[in-house]
Amino acid sequence: MKVPFAALLTGLVGLCPSFAAWAEPAQGSFVASQRCEAFQSIRKQSNPDGLEVQPGRRYEVVEVNKRDYDWLRVRMPDSATPLRWVSAGCGMVEGLAFNTAQAAQPAAAGDICSRSDQHDGYVLAATWQPGFCEHASYKGAKPECEGLESGELQISHLTLHGLWPNRQSCGKGYGHCDGPGLELSTDTLAYVRPWMPNFRYGTSFGRYQWDKHGVCQTQMDDDAYFRRAVDLVRQLDESKAGQYIVANIGGAISRRGFYQKVEEDFGSRDAQNNFLLICSGKYLQEIRVSLPRELKQADSLVGVVDGRFAASRARDRSECVADRILIEAGGR
Question: Among 148, 213, 210, which Cα is nearest to 175's?
Fold first, then answer.
């Protein structure tokens, strides 16, 4: 029996290690926001015909390199080798869904880690926006960063990255549960916008946060979820630890000094285990706070945590390690 050349080529590509055998099947759309190379191989960065995605064009997504993806494999209809890898930072993803039946992961773990209400806590991720925008490789996909650079935006407080339901046994893999789409009210959009500056330019990042994290809890609908997340990041910003950062914009803080402020806020040294500082080199980018599963209504994070301190601090390869941490100033 003759095998069509295209099918043979597909089979050979599947055997080639440069084509990321660890990728996970996915379906959705990728809308390019800039010209970026479309690689045959991520590892080799091979692109023999110089193919690029074009701004404003929509491409079919067929795979991602991992659940918390930074590369997407898209179909380029005008190419002889149409399946190409593109950096996720080159555009926006819409309607992404995973084909869990084909995913190479243990069935039980995959079920738990993508099933709603299986979380044992939350992580509040608060961004120091100037530090992120100045030192992260966002490749033009963050209009709020362009606004900071141009002086259109002036940001002098912590901003909301996300509120993530978390299950310790899943590591960073808890997410992408089934749930409703994002439909925020006009009032909620206005409530969120000052604390999540990407919302000044659209809701694509908010939709990503909801689809990946928000739907994994059912205690709050989308409006209540984003409002609660804003309240929590505001409480962090108003805490002694948060104001220690704000007071040193354009200068530096001490890592030890920050954790001392946390201890003063909560009246316990154990509270330091709930906080993690994330840096890009020596610059602050983010603060992550571990919160209990029951998010109690309270006037401060002290009441929300309610003495439920983590046994040890979370680990991350981007954790700030030096004592001196620079606090980038935003805007011109």
Answer: 213
CB 72 within 8 A of CB 53: no
Rg of the chain on CA atoms, in Å: 21
Q: What is the tens place of the pLDDT at every residue in 100-123?
A: 443 334 334 447 899 999 999 999
Going by C-beta distance under 8 Å and a sequence separation of 6 or more, which residues neighbour residue 47?
37, 38, 39, 40, 84
| Residue 222: C-alpha distances to residues 28, 93, 162, 326 (Å) | 22, 19, 13, 35
Residue 93 CB neighbour total at 10 angstroms: 20
> Which tens digits make up the pLDDT trace of 136-171?
766 667 888 888 888 888 899 999 999 999 998 888
| CATH of span 111-326 | 3.90.730.10
CB 90, CB 289: distance < 8 Å? no
CA triplet 10, 13, 19: central angle to 5 degrees? 130
3-class secondary-structure state, position 178: coil
The backbone region for 130, taken as left when phi is positive above 0, alpha when psi lies in -120 to 50, beta otherwise, is alpha
Domain edges within the chain: 21-100, 111-326
Distance CA 292, CA 179 (A): 22
Residue 309's identity, in one-letter code, is F
Residues 6+ apart with CB under 8 A from 28: 61, 93, 94, 95, 96, 97
Task: Please state the pTM of the whole predicted model.
Answer: 0.68
Tell me the C-alpha distance between 218 and 226, whole Å.
13
Q: Is the dihedral of CA 137, 140, 141, 146 positive or negative?
A: positive
Q: For tokens 């773990």, what's the residue? A: 109
DSSP-derived 3-state class of residue 316? coil
Q: Write the CA distances from 152 to 130, 138, 148, integer angstroms.
A: 13, 18, 6
Q: How far apart are CA 68 and CA 238, in angstroms?
A: 31
Over the stretch 71-98, which tens digit does the pLDDT of each residue have?
A: 998 888 777 788 899 999 899 888 787 7
Structure tokens at 184: 């925020």
**CATH architecture group of domain 21-100:** Roll (2.30)
